[in-house]
Design a protein that fits this description.
This protein is an alpha+beta fold and about 160 residues long. The chain folds into 2 domains: about 50 residues; about 110 residues. The chain is built from 4 helices and 6 strands, in the order H-H-H-E-E-E-E-H-E-E. The protein has a 6-stranded mixed β-sheet with strand order 1-2-3-4-5-6. Helix 2 runs antiparallel to helix 3. The longest helix has 20 residues. The N and C termini lie far apart (about 40 Å).
Length: about 160
């Protein structure tokens, strides 16, 4: 019941679990999601609960049961926050983001990507996934970097047209 009523509770639980398992990057990502959810709830005085959920965005398999063209698969979903995987040449990459549908746009807010994929592969998968969801564009708003040369840096948003 607490998970359904307290903003950020599920993300907090996921952060603690990831930390205990030694997945410090995912712990930071879940912690960031928790803080963003709490901040949005406070700033909007609770109106963020009215943001349209993206339940329709979690269906990525075709009716025949085979993988969709994008190859994307939702591994976990808690509210609007998803962890998804998509195939890349060297295996698989994963993305964690808050997924929001805003009219003809699909927004991946606070996105964190891990794996052996290239930016080109990630953008291609996002475009294909956006087409499957029937949106005209996908906006990837990266989360603050937790590792690398510039920890704390927030990358500029990337907008991808789907051609629909």
């Amino acid at each position: 019941m607490v998970a359904a009523t307290v903003p950020g509770q599920v993300s907090f639980d996921n952060a603690v679990t990831a930390w205990e398992q030694g997945s410090y990057g995912w712990a930071a990502a879940h912690g960031t999601a928790m803080l963003l959810e709490q901040a949005m709830f406070a700033v909007s005085l609770g109106a963020t609960r009215a943001v349209a959920p993206v339940a329709q965005c979690t269906t990525v398999a075709s009716r025949s049961g085979t993988a969709a063209k994008s190859g994307a698969e939702i591994l976990e979903r808690e509210g609007n926050v998803v962890i998804a995987s998509f195939p890349v040449v060297k295996g698989e990459a994963r993305v964690m983001a808050e997924m929001i549908r805003d009219g003809d746009r699909l927004i991946l807010r606070g996105a964190h990507i891990e794996g052996n994929g290239t930016l080109k592969e990630a953008l291609s998968a996002a475009k294909a996934f956006g087409r499957e969801q029937g949106v005209k564009e996908v906006v990837i708003e990266g989360g603050a970097r937790t590792t690398g040369a510039v920890p704390g840096h927030v990358p500029r948003p990337i907008t991808i047209g789907t051609g629909l």
